[in-house]
Amino acid sequence: MEILANDNSGYVYILEVKDIDLPVCKIGRTRRDPYQRCNEINNSSTGDFIWSVAHYIAVDDCKRLESLVHSELTPLRQKGREFFSLNANDANTALLSIFDNQTEIKKVNFEEITLPKKNSTNSAITRKHSLRNIDSEYAELLQLFASLLNVKGRPFGQLNKPIFGMSDGNKGVQWNLSVNTKTEEIRLGVNLEGSAKTGGWLIANFILNKPSIDIIKSQINHPEDITLRFSRDAWQGASRLDIKEKFIGGREYPLSEIHQNMWSTILGEVLTCLDECKNYRGRKRNQQVTLESDGRELMKDISPHLTIWTPLSIVGNIEENIKARISELRPVYAWVVEACQS
């Protein structure tokens, strides 16, 4: 398809998550083929799901129409992104209604877009994933996660990558659900990332406040079923590297195994992943890490990442399984939130 004639003409498109029914879509604009734009998004390092084109409209002022749609759907928009918490068909209904209720923006005639051929060599089209039942159990799983927590839900990972899932989108302590596409293991957890985006490096507060591990163990019925992991994130731009030193303390630990002396040692090691010159509100600069892929040693910025999780089964009643795991982790969530207070 040719680029449309004038400077303002173009497409407002709606993308949906490929191969899975989720109440989330992406609404954007382009002056080129929407399928080409979708492929570019899929090939970028945004860390989101694989997208496919669900709907589009060609108009003489795509920038203005996109702005109108974004404005009208603001309550459903995920902050700072072009993602909206509704399915693609509902988004298209809204798009057409918004277009029909204005008179200045006009449709543009264009030739029918030819769908990408099945044998296309484009990597975004030929990507595969290993999940056999992605259209049923996993879709229901992610939808129930967002519904039971009464959140919009924010997807992470990609279906062609080892890990994908959904978080509650909170900037501080988060609930999240992850699926390992290789092992098909599902984890429901409480997450706190070492980042300024968490509301001012909340993880520094957590470490410096030294929350008692014995207190949280006493509040859990089965601490052997809950695993705590402090990981070391090594950064290359906006991407995390897979490094050999990723586990702080050497590995993940069931809560039942962690005693207070061990916990103090782990917290001390975690603190070394933050910049003491910034009162621990920043990444530790220029630290040596080893790539898992080829053993190369590099100097990278690092930061700590806390995840406390429990396994989740999709055998039987999925909704009841999620409810039970959320209930089990609520004391953990409250413990982390309290320890983050300044």
Structural write-up:
The protein is of the alpha+beta class. Helix content is 30%, strand content 27%. It has 9 helices and 13 strands. The chain has helices at 34-43, 62-72, 88-100, 123-126, 134-149, 202-209, 213-218, 260-271, 318-339, and strands at 10-17, 25-30, 51-59, 83-84, 154-157, 163-167, 174-180, 186-193, 227-236, 239-241, 247-254, 284-290, 297-311. The strands form 2 sheets. Strands 5, 6, 7, 8, 9, 10, 11, 12 and 13 form a 9-stranded antiparallel β-sheet that branches. It has a 4-stranded antiparallel β-sheet with strand order 3-1-2-4, with helices on both faces. A hairpin with a 6-residue loop joins strand 12 and strand 13. Helix 2 (62-72) crosses helix 3 (88-100) and helix 5 crosses helix 9 (318-339). Residues 111-136 have low confidence and may be disordered.
Q: What's the short story on this structure?
A:
The protein has 342 residues and is an alpha+beta fold. The protein is 30% helix and 27% strand.
User: How much is the average pLDDT?
Assistant: 84
Low-confidence stretches: 111-136
Distance between the termini: 56 Å
CATH top level of the largest domain? Alpha Beta
Number of DSSP-assigned strands: 13
Per DSSP, the total helix count is 9
**What's the quaternary structure here?**
single chain
**What is the total domain count?**
2
- Sequence of secondary-structure elements: EEHEHEHHHEEEEHHEEEHEEH
Q: How does CATH name the architecture of the largest domain?
A: 2-Layer Sandwich
> Strand portion, in percent?
25-35%
The proportion of residues forming helix, as a percent range, comes to 25-40%
Instruction: Please state the CA-atom Rg, rounded to the nearest Å.
Output: 23 Å
Structural class, by secondary structure, is alpha+beta
The CATH topology assignment of the largest domain is: BirA Bifunctional Protein, domain 2
What's the story with the biggest beta sheet? 9 strands, antiparallel
Molecular shape: globular
